């Protein structure tokens, strides 16, 4: 290594200084490292749009679930409301049948009063339903009907194979036939009850 001697006239000392960083340099470094105001605005807008879309989809799903739940509750409510009407229809139907039977009973009673001779046909049908071998037959009739049957049939006590028993409990227009082995209830109430059972029973079979 050689030493170079600088002449005294040329030698001049220059002091070293720390380089200054200007405001422009600092601002440039900050811009390069951090997002700008416009970038922040874009990021905020993007996040808002994504959050809005996600929230809207969740809202739609929740809305669909709520609508489905309300529809299910409405169906259940309509089902509950429909059952009383079905029961009401059946109840009204039975009441109408009973009302019709009551009206029929009144009409039959009036017809019996207007034509008492109908009881004779009822007596004949009841006696014909007895077995041929029936013994000790007793014919229960209302007192007025009993006298009518005696007059119409024109049979004395000795000629009749059965005995007439006056029974004031029985309504006019019917009879009860009792033997040692069987009995037949041809009273007006029994015939109407059988009619009611047939009508109501037929309706139940139709419903089934």
Architecture overview:
With 208 residues, this protein is α+β, with helices and mostly antiparallel strands. The chain folds into two domains: 39-114; 116-200, 2-Layer Sandwich (hypothetical protein PF0899 fold). The chain is built from five helices and four strands; from the N terminus they run H-H-H-E-H-E-E-E-H. Helix 2 (37-114) runs antiparallel to helix 5. Mean pLDDT is 72; it is low at 25-32.
Mean model confidence by pLDDT: 72
Low-pLDDT sequence parts: 25-32
Q: Please count the helical segments.
A: 5
Instruction: Please give the domain count.
Output: 2
Strand arrangement across the biggest beta sheet: 2-1-3-4
CATH topology of the largest domain: hypothetical protein PF0899 fold
Largest sheet: 4 strands, mixed
Specify the CATH architecture of the largest domain: 2-Layer Sandwich
Q: Over the alpha carbons, how many angstroms does the gyration radius reach?
A: 57 Å
Q: Strand pairing plus helix content: what structural class?
A: alpha+beta
Please give the share of residues in helix: 55-70%
Strand content: 5-15%
Q: What is the number of strand segments? A: 4
The shape, in one word, is: rod-shaped
| Gap from first CA to last CA | 128 Å
SSE sequence, one letter per element: HHHEHEEEH
- CATH top level label of the largest domain: Alpha Beta
Structure summary:
By secondary structure, this protein is α+β, with helices and mostly antiparallel strands.
Descriptors:
208 residues; alpha+beta; hypothetical protein PF0899 fold; 2 domains; 4-stranded mixed sheet; rod-shaped
Write the layout of secondary structure elements.
Elements: H1 23-33, H2 37-114, H3 118-128, E1 137-141, H4 143-153, E2 162-166, E3 175-178, E4 183-186, H5 188-207
Parallel strand pairs: 1-2
Antiparallel strand pairs: 1-3, 3-4
Helix pairs in contact: 2-5
